[in-house]
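Internal QA ticket QA-208
Title: Verify multi-chain structure generation after dependency bump
Assignee: T.L.

Test input:
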Amino acid sequence: GQQVMQIPQYQHVQEGEDFTTYCNSSTTLSNIQWYKQRPGGHPVFLIQLVKSGEVKKQKRLTFQFGEAKKNSSLHITATQTTDVGTYFCAGRMNSGYSTLTFGKGTMLLVSP
Amino acid sequence: DADVTQTPRNRITKTGKRIMLECSQTKGHDRMYWYRQDPGLGLRLIYYSFDVKDINKGEISDGYSVSRQAQAKFSLSLESAIPNQTALYFCATSDRISLALDTQYFGPGTRLTVL
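Actual output:
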């Protein structure tokens, strides 16, 4: 079946260090979304990437979509304690009525 | 998101009991979803509904059933709960109108424990 693999499963960094999580799909994606879930909270939408090679930035967060539309990454520059949480990628295999397939998430812990 | 509510927020039940989890939304969205979250396994889709007359099985529908009572309400039932259905359950909605950006809005979750 459709699979979206996400690595690493867990990362612990010191505040100020950078962080990257990677997402790989077994099939070409129509688009990919990223969500953040704070501890004890629910997933919250961050961004959607649609175009091959697309790069989007939100302050210290940089999102990339691969040229083949089968992989994506989220990079956080100079992490802060507010970045703590689990980051999920979610890929859509076809446009229109298909559903999202979520990766297993990367849990980020930031120590002050 | 406060526009998507789930009841109950926490529930402890026994094996074999029937359980219903309810989801309501005031966002006016057509699409509704039920996900299950287990540690290390991410979010897995149980059922989804693209409108009131549409019900579809997701990745892990066995042991679950759903009812879309109205556009704003989507219920998940466990006919005979078993311990491996212990998990955090999320309801989500999305808007059919903006297919290009089918953002999912999640409720606060229901933590279910089956003893």
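Spot checks passed. The mean pLDDT of chain B is 92.
Status: verified.
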